Amino acid sequence: MIRKAIKDDISKIVNIMKDVVNKMISEGNPQWDSSYPTKDIYLKDIENEDLYVFIKGDQIVAAACINQIQAEEYKNIKWKISSDNSFVIHRIIIDPNFQNQGIAVDFMKFAEKLAIKSNVFSIRIDTFSMNKKAQNLFKKLGYFEVGKVYFRNKKEPFICFEKNII
């Protein structure tokens, strides 16, 4: 089940985020670190009603932000859909104990259904160039690579993807 996150969820979300960051670092993926993402970012997502959590059994096992806020760096991308009437998926985190169980696919499909319901034209997402698992997932789900951006003083680029929804 996927639902909107509430403030009471924050400690579990932060614990998952820390576990995900530690796993990324241990695998040689410097996409995230202690400076990003942060508890405050997730609290703002909750406050804006943009953060969703995935519940398995009775526990939160994943979270993702879905909104229409596009990074400033996105302005230089030649998107397939020229309209800014797009959802952007940010900061997908899945508890490492629940990874490789289809939760990311479920979140992406949830976002697509939400986009259709909201009359949004496309979904945009980016991932670190070293995160091949995410890139392969997005391609498998019909997202097209549209360009590269640089975030947070990282030397390697982030790959931007887009999928036409309507």
UniProtKB/TrEMBL annotation:
<dbReference type="Pfam" id="PF00583">
    <property type="entry name" value="Acetyltransf_1"/>
</dbReference>
<dbReference type="InterPro" id="IPR016181">
    <property type="entry name" value="Acyl_CoA_acyltransferase"/>
</dbReference>
<dbReference type="InterPro" id="IPR000182">
    <property type="entry name" value="GNAT_dom"/>
</dbReference>
<keyword id="KW-0689">Ribosomal protein</keyword>
<dbReference type="GO" id="GO:0016747">
    <property type="term" value="F:acyltransferase activity, transferring groups other than amino-acyl groups"/>
</dbReference>
<dbReference type="GO" id="GO:0005840">
    <property type="term" value="C:ribosome"/>
</dbReference>
<feature type="domain" description="N-acetyltransferase">
    <location>
        <begin position="1"/>
        <end position="166"/>
    </location>
</feature>
<keyword id="KW-0687">Ribonucleoprotein</keyword>
<protein>
    <submittedName>
        <fullName>Ribosomal protein S18 acetylase RimI-like enzyme</fullName>
    </submittedName>
</protein>
